[in-house]
Design a protein that fits this description.
The chain is an alpha/beta fold and 390 residues long. It contains 14 helices and 13 strands.
Length: 390
Amino acid sequence: MSLPPNFTLLQVVPELETGGAEQTTIDVARAVVAAGGRALVASRGGRMEAALAAAGGELVRLPMQSKNPLVMLQTARALRRVIRGRRVSLVHVRSRAPAFPALWAARAEGLPTVATYHGIYLAKGPLKRWYNAVMTRVDRVIANSDYTRAHVLTEHRIAPARVVAIPRGVDLNRFDPEKVSLERVEALRRAWGLPPQGEGPLVFLLAGRLTPIKGHETIIAAAARLKGEGRNLRVIFAGDDQGRSAYRHSLEAAVGAADLEGVVRLVGHCDDMPAAFMAADIALLPTLVPESFGRAAVEPQVMGRPVIASDHGGTTETVLPGQTGWRAAPGDIEAWALAMAAAIDLGREGLTALGAVARERAVRLYANDAMCAATLAVYEQLLEARSVGK
C-alpha cells in the first residue's frame, strides 16, 4: 500500500493504556510508517507508549481524555499548531471526547477526517445522542464490524456510502503459535498456580479488564454449578481492575462465598497474551453488553483456542457454534455452565481439533495486514477526492 508523498497521519485517542482502540491505533501507525508516511498520535499516553515508539509512531502528549470544555478548547488550539507544524495530511479520531477538539482543529485547517466507531455507544436521551454523533461528523466512518455498521446507520441515519465496515485485525506476527516458546507458556502457568501444560483440569481464560460488563460474575456462578456437579476445571481472570478495586474485592468475595478458591483465580494484568491463550485450553468472552467486534474472541482463535462467547454483538460474526467454539446467552448461568461442560466433555484432543478450525478461519478473515490495508485505502480515497475537488 502506497501513500501520497510526505503523508502525515494524526490519530487521536484518549489514552494509550490498553484496549482494542489503542492497539488498532498502534497497528495503523505501524502500517503508515511502513508505507513511507509519518504517524502521530495525540493522547494522554500510557503503558502502550513504548509499543507506539516501536511501531515508528510519535506521541503528541495532550489531555485528549478531558471532557472539560475549556480544556477541549485549549487542546483544539494545540492540535492546530501540531497540524500546521507537522503538516498533517489527515485526522483520524477514535473516541468521542477527543473527537470534539480534534474535529474543530481539522475543520479549521481544512483537513479530511475519519472516525472509527470502536464501540456501541448507547443513548437514552437527545443530549447523549448528540454527543455520540460526533463520531459521524467526519468524511468517512469506519465501523469495526458489520454489527457496528448496522448500529451506526440505524442510530444516526447517515448515508450508507459514508460508513465502511473494516473488521479489527490481529497481528499475526505477534499472535503466532509457532513463535510462543514452551518456556513462556510454562512461566505463566506457574505464575497462575497451574500444573505443566497438558496436565490437570481444563483451563478457561477470561482476558479483559475487571468491570461488571465483562461478565465475570456469570462465570463464577457457572463454575460453582460445574463444581457442584463434580466437574474439575480452572478459571483464570486476567486483567486490571483499572482503579475499580471495589469490583475486584466483590469478585474475590464471590469466589470465596462459592468455595472456589483454587478454582477461580484473579491474576491481574498480563503482558504476554499470546502465551496466555496458549497456557489455557479455551477462552471466555461472557460480556453482558454487546461487543462491537470482540478482539478477545478472535485473538485466542488465531492462537488455536476455541472460544465460548456471549451470543450478541460482533461475536455472532466471529464465533461459529460447533465449528470454532460455542455461544451462550449473556448472563444466563445455566447456558454458560452447559457450554463450559460441553468443552470439558470434548476434552483436550477435541478442543485442539476445534481450535485448528478456529485458527484457519480467523487468520483468513481477521489478519491485521488486511485491516491496515483497508484503512489506508480509505485515507487514499479521501485525499484523492480532495485533490480532484481542488
